[in-house]
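Entry type: protein chain
Record version: 2
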Amino acid sequence: MTRPWNPTRPHIDLVVTAVTTGDGRTGTGFSWAPNVGGRAVHALLETDVREAALGLPAHPAVVYDRLWWHLHEAGRGGLTTMALAAVDLALWDLTATAGLTAAVGRRHEAVPVYGSGVNRHYSLDELIAQAKRWSEAGTRAVKIKVGGRDLAEDVERVEAVRQVLGPDVRLMLDANQLWDLPGALRAIEALRRFEPGWIEEPLPADDVQAYARLRAAASGIPIALGENTHTPWQFRDLLTAGACDILQPNVVRVGGITPFLRIVELARTFDIPVYPHLLPDISGQLACCLPLPAMVEDVEDASFAALGLLTEPYPVRIEDGLLRPGDHPGLGLRFDEDRLKSTRI
């Protein structure tokens, strides 16, 4: 990675999958693991997933349901859904012949992008420099990391970024599950004066009841949640508990486009917006199909295009703070085979 997400993890794991039908058509998908699990996902795909998928009709929803049922004893989410995503994305690439947004139903010509940084390990000077890059690029919304340090230091860092961005840029804060409920309540009150657009994952992702209590006490500060939630049933539980204001499913972690769209329809019945987590090369296309307003997360220098993993034309383009999908069949992911070979582990 150009900008490692932590000092001990300078790379991400990417598993690229090809699904070929009996009549010779091929779709390309992928799974992705930024910290752990890439080799385990690969092993699942080479064994249990391959064996169960052979002979099934090339229909994303049929295959997803059959494979999820086959794999759920090994885990109802996590590695299993991350492996399922590689197949589901390939099947959507295969069947969406006029393009993903045409197949799902495009509702927006373009969607806003927010600059995002995995920057907890940055010094204050490095964080300020990153904020200046976003400001100079005209980015209208920015997200930075908080948590894992003394609250006073978090306040200092957020204040410094707010000063760089000015009062008119939306500023969101991501704690990556590092607070407990009392700590989150203290932090929200200390950070309230910076008008955060949302507080993301302040508590352990599975603690639904604590999130419901936090949201009730947050008094107007939106709570965002969902990047570590894996199934439609888990998202249902977040919604029925009143645990969050914004859902952030990751299209790989939930198992692909098929379950992602089910989560979107579920959120719609609660009037909760969906802001897809990471992976703008795919998430941006899906965001243009969402029924409610959305933004797309673009971590600095971390999209597949920015990492040099794709050949042009890219599936999405980002200009002037807006993302627009290109004109392509399927998902539009043209992986650079030479780059994949040179980085294979």
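Comment: The CA atoms of residues 309 and 341 lie 11 Å apart.
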